[in-house]
TrEMBL record:
Histidine kinase/HSP90-like ATPase domain: residues covered: 45-150
Keywords recorded for this protein, A-Z: Kinase, Serine/threonine-protein kinase, Transferase
CDD domains in alphabetical order: HATPase_RsbW-like (cd16936)
Keyword Transferase: yes
Name recorded for this polypeptide: Histidine kinase/HSP90-like ATPase domain-containing protein
Residues covered by region (Disordered): 1-28
InterPro entries: Anti-sigma-factor_SerPK, HATPase_C_sf, HATPase_dom
GO MF entry, a single one: protein serine/threonine kinase activity
The organism's place on the tree of life at top rank: Bacteria
Amino acid sequence: MTTSDTRVGEPGSGHEEGESLPAEAGTAKEADVKLRFTRHELGISPELSELARVRHWVRTVLRGFPAQFVGTAVMVVDELTSNALRHGRAPYYVRLLPGVAKLRIEVDDSEGEPARRRAPSDQGGRGLLLVERCAAAWGQLRRPSGKTLWAELATDPDPAGACS
């Protein structure tokens, strides 16, 4: 687990921020540059049914990345979000922060207690172990209003974002 962290910003209301491209921009490379430097954020309700909407949102935001990488990102986001919904408190925000060499995933909730790995059982306890196995780095940031769990996935095509 990585202990250092920088705060990206306060949660918003489900919007994207970043430099917009000129109206004539339209090549795949230009679209890729815009995607990789845009802050994508989604606010969600405390219902577990929101997980399906979050997975769909991640697939939409990461359209154009290799399928295996997108699958890994969906799994990591799903684990961090389900952990927040089960053990945290509203409000909840999910962020995707694509960069040149990594994708940073952040999930905010308002529970002050830090997330902890549990021993796997029939009731769960595998989520953070899966995140640890798939992410290049992960951790949590405690804030006065709650916490942010985060994970970073390497975006280079070798090994295409697969979990080891």
